[in-house]
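User: As part of a screening pipeline, I want to sanity-check one entry by hand. Below is the sequence and the SMILES for zinc ion. Please return the complex as structure tokens so I can compare it with the automated output.
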Amino acid sequence: MMNIHIAESNLGLGASQSFTFSCTAQEIDAVSDTYSFEGPIAVEGTVTRTGTNFRVKGTIKARKHFVCDRCLADSFEDQVHPFEEEFYRPGEAAEETSNIVDGDELDIQELVRDTLLAAQPLSNICKPDCKGLCPVCGHNLNEGDCGCDRFVPDPRMAALQQLLKKTK
Ligand SMILES: [Zn+2]
Ligand SMILES: [Zn+2]
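Assistant: Here is the complex for your manual check:
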């Protein structure tokens, strides 16, 4: 549970209250088949009481563990994701929202989970210029060249070369 306990008596108009949470990915159901988050996920931020709502603003820090799609290396990436969202007292929101403050508890678990998962790219690459594996011998090309001839001729060019050989 990631509930911010709001001491409303201390949180007057314009006043802020800070919060910090630490959890595992499993605790907030931030799990995927293609990667995981290792160690604690750290969440911190502030709640500000505005005239019409509670503004929740903060950052999520997580360490992503994955296998690179290109070179298959075991990889880690330290990530920081900002978030900002409005929460309302029941009946105070202008539009339909699930961001409702129930009593003194403001639950940001879903917000944190959705922010974290939505920030993940479709592909898991160890670094933007990852060179991948040699299609001939499987060598990791980030560690240097293996010397293989990886030139794959265009089939039409190959046919043309055959034709040229015959005419010689
Ligand atoms: Zn890679
Ligand atoms: Zn090779």
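Points to compare against the pipeline: The first strand starts at residue 3 and ends at 5. The two ends are 78 Å apart (CA to CA).
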